[in-house]
Amino acid sequence: MQKSLRIGQILYTNVLPVYFYFQQERFEDQIEFIRQVPATLNQAMARGEIDLGPISSFSYAEHASRYVALADLSVSANGRVGSLFLFSKKPIEQLNGAKIALTNTSATTVNLLKIILSKFYDYEISYVTQEPILADMLREADAALLIGDDAIQAVRRGGDLHVYDLGELWHQFTGYSMTFAIWAVRKEVLAEQSELLAEVHNSFLASKRKTRENPAPLIDYVHTHFGGDKQEWAQYFQGLQHDFGDVQRIGLLYYYRCAAELGLLPAPATVDLWQAGGRQTNTTLTR
Ligand SMILES: C=C(O[C@@H]1C=C(C(=O)O)C=C[C@H]1O)C(=O)O
């Protein structure tokens, strides 16, 4: 039997603060989790196979008329992210005319790279999309873009490549924060499941708050399951923001404007926020 809500979960550690204390037992008969990389979740949401969950903020914009976003949840950073890297054989200053391999797991970051290299560097680049395996990607390309745990593992392995953090580049050029994922809900689900949705939303928010107040149990967990160094994980989670307030909203809307300017999106999108009580806030940029 189909459960009442099918919820996506990005397979990467970056969303764990929002899931770590989620009260799964409480909703056991009512919800089902679908764990996948962002590009797969984006498609599943668009096809109506998932009811809510984190998707690429770029994909949200492509389908904005059909979605709303759960208030105050995102995967964002105001500067360095630590899990979105361009690995390059040459310094970025020498990449004009280069061939760059893009991971097939992303929608936001691949377009962020296109914006940065086209708008801020004025480069002509030829892009190919591939599975996220760095050695294969760099066989023919001059540089490769990875996100999530693939990027974390590749940077850990080290090597003599030039490595650029996309959140950091964006912040250097614009001064803005960047939001990579937001928790989208299909509009049909709002009418059918608003009570359950409110409870699920609250449980996500509570998990986020609890891991922020005391990150140690989450850090122990990722250290055990994903290796690495506890101090590095602590820094990683400190650098990420899972809120969606004014700082994140303004940065994201600017990204949407840049994407539309380059023809990557048909038009700059807005984000409609949903929270229990039915209050929706339209986040059109007014400045
Ligand atoms: C911070 C990250 O944000 C991610 C990047 C995404 C994208 O590029 O489409 C989507 C969701 C997030 O997982 C990351 O993967 O490291």
UniProtKB/TrEMBL annotation:
Entry's EC annotation:
4.2.1.151
Q: Which UniProt keywords apply?
A: Lyase, Menaquinone biosynthesis
Q: In which pathway does it act?
A: Quinol/quinone metabolism; menaquinone biosynthesis
Annotated GO MF terms: hydro-lyase activity
Its UniProt entry gives the catalysed reaction(s) as:
chorismate = 3-[(1-carboxyvinyl)-oxy]benzoate + H2O
Q: What class of enzyme is it?
A: lyase
**InterPro entries, alphabetized:** Menaquinone_biosynth, MqnA
Q: Which GO biological process annotations does it have?
A: menaquinone biosynthetic process
Q: Name one Pfam family in it.
A: VitK2_biosynth
Per the record, the domain of life is Bacteria
Biological role = Catalyzes the dehydration of chorismate into 3-[(1-carboxyvinyl)oxy]benzoate, a step in the biosynthesis of menaquinone (MK, vitamin K2).
The entry's family comment says: Belongs to the MqnA/MqnD family. MqnA subfamily.
Q: Which PANTHER family match?
A: CHORISMATE DEHYDRATASE
**Protein name per its UniProtKB record:** Chorismate dehydratase
What organism is recorded for this protein?
Answer: Brevibacillus centrosporus
Q: What is the lineage of its organism?
A: Bacteria, Bacillati, Bacillota, Bacilli, Bacillales
Q: Which gene encodes it?
A: mqnA
